[in-house]
Design goal:
Layout (H helix, E strand, L loop, with lengths): L1 E6 L4 H4 L13 H13 L7 E4 L3 H11 L5 E2 L16 H7 L1 H9 L12 H18 L4 E6 L1 H11 L15 E8 L5 E10 L3
Parallel strand pairs: 1-4, 2-3, 2-4
Antiparallel strand pairs: 1-5, 5-6
Length: 199
């Protein structure tokens, strides 16, 4: 199957470099423009199913890009909950929670932000949702409109094991993966490319 992972467009919080996570700001004017540009890029792409995060920035982006095709919302594709860091910038986080925030940035696998989501839980819910999507459309093309952390996690699991914070997908960017299902739940990604960048 062909899997297209799309990060939502810009919000005012993105512009100010604030952590969003489970917070729910909508797209700003630039984000809507990015969605319209991507819609034009995808006019000739045959997509069988569209899924999205239930958060407004992703759901709104999906509706603009795919027009009449109603996206199916999946809670598993929400962004990670960043707990006390939500609404804060990097500088604000370092000022208020230097030890906690620093430890989490250095090793998110073994450190969790207060009131935030454990990486193990985040991985489990994202990958469980993704495997159900893959199983539902063998041989077809599926688009998932979601968040930077969700896409980075999927790429880490199936494509290129990297530091979680490296190479976060661009706003309004689209990654294309070609997936081959193997025994049981195992999958193999035969090719991967970033074919749409923001702006």
């Amino acid at each position: 199957m062909r899997l297209i992972l799309i990060r939502h467009g810009e919000t005012d919080w993105n512009r100010k470099k604030r952590y969003m996570g489970s917070a729910d700001p909508d797209l700003n004017a630039t984000g809507i423009l990015q969605a319209r540009r991507l819609r034009r890029r995808m006019e000739d792409v045959q997509v069988d199913r569209v899924y999205c995060s239930p958060l407004r920035r992703a759901a709104h982006f999906a509706r603009v890009v795919f027009g009449r095709r109603r996206p199916v919302s999946r809670k598993g594709f929400r962004e990670m909950d960043f707990g006390v860091m939500e609404g804060l910038t990097y500088r604000e986080g370092m000022s208020r929670y230097p030890k906690i925030y620093g430890d989490w940035l250095a090793d998110p696998e073994n450190h969790t932000l207060p009131r935030g989501e454990r990486m193990s839980h985040f991985r489990k819910r994202v990958m469980s949702s993704l495997r159900r999507v893959v199983a539902a459309t063998p041989g077809g093309t599926v688009a998932v409109v979601t968040h930077g952390g969700v896409i980075r996690l999927i790429l880490n699991e199936w494509v290129d094991k990297k530091d979680f914070w490296s190479d976060i997908p661009p706003l309004a960017g689209a990654h294309e993966l070609h997936i081959r299902k193997e025994d049981g739940d195992a999958v193999r990604v035969s090719s991967h490319r970033l074919w749409v960048r923001s702006r």
